[in-house]
Structure prediction request, 693 residues.
Amino acid sequence: MTLQAFQPIAAIATTITGAKRLYRLIQHQNIRLWVPESLAEDPALQALSGDRQCYSGALRDHVAKLWASHRALVFCLATGAVVRLIAPLLKHKTADPAVVVVDEAGKFVISLCGGHQGGADQLTRLIALQMNATPVLTGAANALVLPGIDVLGAPFGWHRGSGNWTGVSAAIARGSHPKNAHQAIQVIQEAGSTLWQDHLPSDHPFHFGFSEDTADRPDQPPIARVWISPIQRRFNPDAAMPKVQWHPRVLWVGIGCERHTPKIVIEQAIQSILQAHHLAEGAIAGLATIDLKADEVGLVEFCRDRNLPLRCFPAAVLRLVDVPNPSTVVDAEVGTPSVSEAAALLASGEWGVGEQGSRGAGEQENTQPSTQNSEFSSTAAQNATQNLEPKPQASPAAAPDRPFLRVAKQIFRLEGQPGAVTVAIAQAAQEYTGRTGQLWLVGTGPGQLDQITPAAQMAIAQADVVIGYSLYVDLIQPLLRPGQIVEALPITQERQRAERAIALAQWGLTVAVISSGDCGIYGMAGLVLEQLCTHDWDGKTPAVQVFPGITALQSAASRVGAPLMHDFCAISLSDLLTPWDVIEKRLQAAAQADFVVALYNPKSQTRTRQIEAAQAIFLEHRDRTTPVALVRAAYRPDEQVTVTTLAECLSAPIDMLTTVLIGNQSSRTHANWIITPRGYLGFSNESLLNEKM
Prediction:
């Protein structure tokens, strides 16, 4: 598990104690530890492995150098000292790196600076999990269990637009107070995913779906407004009500151009047409064109400089798209009557996550573009913008659920420059995230947080989405954070969980799929990988990482001693996915081979005979007094442990939360512990031990 999202990270300590404390952080991460030159020869420091460097001179000068080149700084130093070090360097929360402070005792991890936009709050949570420390987060959003409004759209790749972000954040904190429950934060979402809405606390201050004409109604006046839209609005800086805007990347710009059209012409064409239609450049998902233009230098440079995808389609595909402005001239030239409009529509229709599409709230612009094929010059946009928010025109009740052409093709020429550009803009139903999806398959162990590995805890805390069986989701609640998308599904919907996780990861989100025990042992890992293969997965995208957990047989064994000290196997008695005759053959083979056996899924409300059949098979091959452990809900508050014999094991309660451990011919009990000798004492001595037991 890495902290890749926060890299590059610098860790800084001024004492050996501090260096040792941060060593646990840098040991398995790509993080450099900086210490003063005076500690270079200290044997305790030399004993620490990992990437460490010494700085010379004053620490304040060294921190100033790191400030400009790193996304996060982690100090093991007094908080006051860190404040004095960074104070002269602070510029703005949109530019400052995350600053985190760890105390030398390792008890607290403090988010000092850049909590939201710098990522310090999230980094603090992750470091605290790794160090088993307490995170100290002082931002208002954390107390309100709300996502920070200035990072709300980050998981979805939204572009943070202009506005009074500090004012809106303050209004959210004010509106969340019980005495101000009548004060609404108005959210007008015209595009983009609404998953974030579905996972807010019930007492959140947001109100959705108000139209401009009724927003100021006296019974519920808004105290702030959040726009989520591809439209670029210009806010009055003197307005009493603070406003901000997020721009989901839903606009696909279709481009047709003459050969050797320079980048500046393409750039001016796109910017001018965006301005004329009040559209935000930050809402661009990417460019699209005909495959003949895949090597067009101006297009390639424009996309490279802005880190935008360029999607290219063959003429045979483009000509199948119904467009408002087909051209016989273009058809004769390149084999399709439309390039810009058809390419924009094709690109906008290829992104999505299935049923959970973009169901926005609030007003919508008119989704019918002008069909006039206009000539657009470099001066056409001079009077296109307004000083205030443009009012939406005729609008449907929700954001579009399918792509549509927002701007019909327009031809652009720039005086003094060669070439010409044809531009059309389509709006997708689902935004383009611009991220490579991650699928993290996480084993959560028996249930208690201290039984989950630090890496697994960090994966759960860092994921954009957590998906799992509802019971398992309940057990990891303390690891979840505000703004996280958490989807709990019933126990019988394993395939739905897998498909949902794959769809979200393919869209670009980081998804943690949790299983109790180890996710690769009767867990979700195998199913997710199987399902990925049916999607023509290349093994790389989405990226998959498996986080092991303490499985049920280990947890159960630890509660009764050492029953697994010799060869053992695990068999599930559930015949929902495996035919019973196959299970029966495995039981026979394991019983005959004298394996210690762990039985999973031994009995349900409707499936009761399998455990009886298993007992009968083992009684054919083992003594009636063979030790058996029945461990239910190991390490959970309702844990039950019963040590009994093979002959008597069915007299105790058994259900789906029970793991049954059946000893081999050498297994014995001693004071309610089960021991399976390994052979260290020799066969004769072990035989004597067995007789005493």
Summary: The two ends are 45 Å apart (CA to CA). Confidence is low (pLDDT under 50) at residues 212-218, 351-397. The first helix runs from residue 16 to 26. The first strand starts at residue 9 and ends at 13.
